[in-house]
Structure prediction request, 224 residues.
Amino acid sequence: MRQVEESGKNVDVAVEKALARLGIAREQAKIEVLSEGGIIKQAKVRVTKKQTEGEAAVKFLEELLNKMGLTFVVELEEDEAEAKLELIGTESGCVIGHRGEVLDSLQYLTSLVANKGKDKYKRVVLDTEGYRNKRIDKLQTLAKNLESKAMRTNRPVKLEPMNSFERRIIHSALQDSENVTTSSEGTSPNRFVVITPKNYTPSAKKPERKKMHTFVYRSDKKRR
Prediction:
């Protein structure tokens, strides 16, 4: 139930009755006054539950997937800070793409739609078949392996370009390391993480030696 009409001795009473029936707070509702009421006539209001960011995200995503020819059920879990959307279907590979690129793009578009016109930003997360957690585990393992490589070679190790979410995972995995530090370099979409040994000191570049040119004077003139 998203909309109800209620009556009361005044508008405030009618609104409170409608909000109670919907189980929502006043800021979550759109209120229309149908009648102000009077001495013998009751006030009447229509109260409609506003669409949450998560609900807007689900609607947009279902329509988009349908246009892509994909059949998915979208399950929503939402709180004040975040909306999690789980895509349930048999074609998960199509919405994940290479290293999650398609899933990230869908998440970005859905987030724009869900937060359009909102004063407060709500994070939107898309997932399917637990891909996000699996990817996090892989990146954490990768971070540890490259930490060992950086220590073994005593040289910085550059990772491939990653999105901000994946870069944060690498930074987080090594933030307490006693052996290396991490930094991000480059510009999006080619921004990447560099893992550097703490005892690494770049070798000083040797100054170039000036080339000495020898000139030999030859004369073909015969002595007289």
